[in-house]
Predict the 3D structure of the following.
Amino acid sequence: MTHLSDKQFLTLDIIADYKKPVGSGTVSIELSRRGETLSEATAGRILRTLDRKGYTEKNGFQGRKVTDKGLNILKKYRCQKIKKEQLDRLLEYSKVSGKKDLLDILIARRAIEREIAGLAARNIDKEDIHRISKNINQHENKLKKKQSGVEEDKEFHTLISDVAQNRVLKTTLKFIMNEGEVSSLLEFIRKEVGSTLITDHKEIMSALKSGSSRQAEDAMLSHINNLIADVKKYWARVNLS
């Protein structure tokens, strides 16, 4: 987004909260109240940097105020901070420590669900197609209403593992998907990068109906690879390690 430091953004935030121009002394005091102990001289250097970048401007001897450019970048920063806090809560809830853990889970799912999809294509019947199609419709309706489709997503993969008729693969997938409950985390990430699960699910359904194990395997691989790509894209976007 920009190369400003957290302290510089915090300074912008402080100035923007005031209805009148703010001096370096006030900024130093407010920074201390927010856990950043800085001298008035250091606060002054931060303000001069913000001036040079066009995010703040002097108002005579009264102090500084935030420019329109500064307000714009501050709005983006606040939005990103909220999203980062959402991600932190989801990581805590899902018991996933970060990007690597999440990718490891998806890589394991990719191997298992490819086999599951291939078996399901050979075993699927009209009743199975009806159940899975119903799930996709319910998921799509939820999305249209701006509601979470996490439960429908989990059910979709469970239904396919039922059709595969391999107890070991089904049990392994259930363990991986329930370990830490990562579905909410993945839904959040895909939403942030502008992707949806439902498109992938429709492709998988089409491949299953064809009866071709190869097509079903390829569709499932594409789905999991899309998830992996979205995770990497999101982490890069928010500059997380």
Notes: Residues 48 and 56 are 8 Å apart (CA to CA). The domain at 6-82 is CATH 1.10.10.10 (Arc Repressor Mutant, subunit A). The chain has eleven helices and two strands. The first strand starts at residue 56 and ends at 58.
